[in-house]
Automatic annotation (TrEMBL):
Stored PANTHER family: IRON-SULFUR CLUSTER ASSEMBLY ENZYME NIFU HOMOLOG
Name the UniProt record assigns to this protein: Iron-sulfur cluster assembly scaffold protein NifU
Organism: Paraliobacillus quinghaiensis
SUPFAM superfamilies on file: SufE/NifU
Family affiliation: Belongs to the NifU family.
Ranges for domain NIF system FeS cluster assembly NifU N-terminal: 10-129
Single Gene Ontology MF annotation: iron-sulfur cluster binding
GO biological process: iron-sulfur cluster assembly
Amino acid sequence: MSFDNLDTLYRQVIMDHYKNPRNRGSFGEDSVTIDMNNPTCGDRIQIHLLVEDDKVKDAKFDGEGCSISLSSASMMTQAIKGRNVTEALKMSEIFSDMMLGKDIDTEDLDLGDIEALQGVSKFPARIKCATLAWKAMEKGINEQEQA
């Protein structure tokens, strides 16, 4: 597949998650809820996590923002559901490395649609948009573990 075709496919995946977000919404009071925003562009994300027995049983998000921010949140909630917290945090680390343009090792973890965001690394101003939900998830898991 040529680079142009791959780029087009990735854009389609991003727009699909933006227009048809997965896991949008919230839970009851038993969830960990983290609000974060990106003041440079106005993105605002709220991540809701149900963490039990060291596992992310479910994840949802809500918020407002650009297609990159909301697509990333949709992809992230899909990817971490059912994983143990160590895997979820490892995925976040891999995603951060990907956003920084580093070579990533995805042998142990299938990133699925998340790889569509790889091109964001070429646009430094958009990296914060893509990583916002991931940073909120990390904060939520860390707060849950300290509680």
